[in-house]
TrEMBL record:
Family recorded in the similarity comment: Belongs to the transferase hexapeptide repeat family. LpxD subfamily.
CC per GO annotation: membrane
Subunit description: Homotrimer.
CDD domains: LbH_LpxD
Protein name, UniProt field: UDP-3-O-acylglucosamine N-acyltransferase
Length: 343
């Protein structure tokens, strides 16, 4: 189903100032170089401003400084990229994970279901679970005993939520994610591994989005906590007792070891590895492939990954890295000699 909104509605959605025909409609968002009649586009990168004069979109969303570059309908907004996100939401036609409570869903008799709850085919919801209003559970999901899921939250197909987990309002969990699995806790007695039962749970705040195939382990004693407004990408590992602060964003493939505390408004790049039992301050950015071995006490941008090089250059770099200790000893000897001569 195609949605259409007028330019007047577009202005209300974005809080922008419209110059043009308010009765015209748009039904999709498109890149500036491919936008045609019926599309809305936006300029967030100034280097593309040269294309504004030729743009065929019904309306272009720009900052006030680019208004005069647009010959057609223009919507002036504070942040075109944020405006794009809001318009994309308004035009979104993604279906719900489930439309009804399917007859094949297995729901325990004492489960508490709010209004307008939908559950997909072959899902299992166990005893004591509480699902708020407008919760949608996709096909093949498992919701364990005494789980609480807040209103307007969506679980896509094949999500597994273990016992006692708490998920807040307006969350979105993509397919094949596992929440509340056992943390990696074992003791070793003379070479034999003894499992440590994970007695905590996972507590997820409101407006949290979790990508596909991500694993979030339950706490060993205390809980694993993800605060409000956090976004987690696909294929991530969040270990037991990790605490992720408000508004933090973490890209795909990142691994966080146990009992680490990540502050508010952090940005963690893809494939980052974070050691356990450390703390990361509010507002820290870690670029992709970073390896975090110790606490980060101050806000800033941190990097450690080795950028890609042509193979011949990389082989030279690797060879030199292996000789760093020897080079350090030789340099130290030269410094000592110079110091003795100066004395």
């Amino acid at each position: 189903m195609v949605k259409k909104i007028t330019l007047a509605e577009l202005a209300n959605i974005t809080g922008g100032e419209l110059s043009g025909d308010s009765n015209l409609t748009v039904s999709s968002v498109a890149p500036m170089d491919r936008a045609t009649d019926g599309d809305v586009t936006f300029l967030s990168n100034p280097k593309y401003a040269k294309h504004l004069g030729d743009c065929q979109a019904t309306v272009v969303m720009v900052k006030s400084s680019q208004r005069d570059l647009c010959p057609g309908n223009v919507l002036v907004v504070d942040d075109p990229y944020v405006a794009f996100a809001k318009v994309a939401q308004a035009l979104d036609t993604t279906p719900s994970p489930a439309d009804i409570i399917e007859p094949s869903a297995a729901i325990a008799p004492d489960v508490s279901l709010g209004e307008n709850v939908t559950v997909g085919a072959n899902s299992v919801i166990e005893s004591g679970a509480v699902l708020g209003d407008n919760v949608s559970v996709g096909a093949g999901c498992f919701v364990g005993k005494n789980v609480t899921i807040g209103k307007d939250t969506k679980l896509w197909a094949n999500v597994s939520v273990y016992h006692d987990v708490v998920i807040g309002d307006k969350c979105l969990v993509q397919s094949n994610t596992v929440i509340g699995s056992d943390g990696f806790g074992y003791a070793n007695e003379r070479g034999e591994w003894i499992k440590i039962p994970q007695l905590g749970t996972v507590r997820i705040g409101n407006r949290v989005e979790i990508g596909a195939c991500t694993s979030i382990d339950r706490g060993a004693l205390d809980d694993t906590v993800i605060e409000d407004n956090v976004i987690l990408d696909n294929q991530m590992q969040i270990a037991h007792n990790v605490h992720i602060g408000y508004g933090t964003a973490m890209a795909g493939g990142t691994i966080v070891a146990g009992s680490t505390k990540i502050g508010k408004y952090c940005i963690i790049g893809g494939a980052v590895v974070i050691n356990g039992h450390i703390e990361i301050a509010d507002g820290v950015t870690i670029t992709g492939m970073g390896m975090v071995m110790r606490s980060i006490p101050e806000k800033g941008v941190y990097s450690s990954g080795i950028p890609l090089q042509p193979n011949k250059e990389w082989r030279k770099t690797a060879a030199r890295v292996h000789r760093i200790d020897d080079m350090h000893k030789r340099l130290k000897a030269v410094e000592d000699q110079l110091k003795q001569k100066s004395e």
